[in-house]
Amino acid sequence: MEANNPRIPSSEAPRVSLHSTRRVYRAVNGYARVERAGSETPSTWFLRAAGEFDSDTVPCLREALGDARRDDAERILLDVSRVGFGDSTFLDALVEARRGPAGLVLVGPLPFQIRRLFEITGTLRLFPLVLLATDRGASGFV
């Protein structure tokens, strides 16, 4: 396992409050969505992406990441464990978010197709990755 990809138990995972701001960003065409879940601090944005991200659907991801930047987020966590497909526009949105002051931390496990996208393009090393040790179906966030 790579040094920047630690596996952490659920008890040490980033804590998400169930009572904080929640917003869902949906793709106009196609199946993709990004949900902003609450977090312990307002300066941390926790986003959950799901679906298939291509040029038609990636605008909802860009909007969510853009809102985090405009809100002066100090940390952006993006759960990609439910992303079934991502193309170069998906990767471009992630690289762009990484360049911002908050950076970008991916939360996994990485789905096979997304891991292959990173491996083929040589971009896996660009993103810190937190792998959650959870039971199937449990989010791992408390």
UniProtKB/TrEMBL annotation:
Start and end residues of each STAS domain: 34-142
InterPro entries: MlaB-like_STAS, STAS_dom, STAS_dom_sf
Domain of life the protein comes from: Bacteria
UniProt-recorded name of the protein: STAS domain-containing protein
Entry-linked Gene3D superfamilies: STAS domain
One Pfam short name: STAS_2
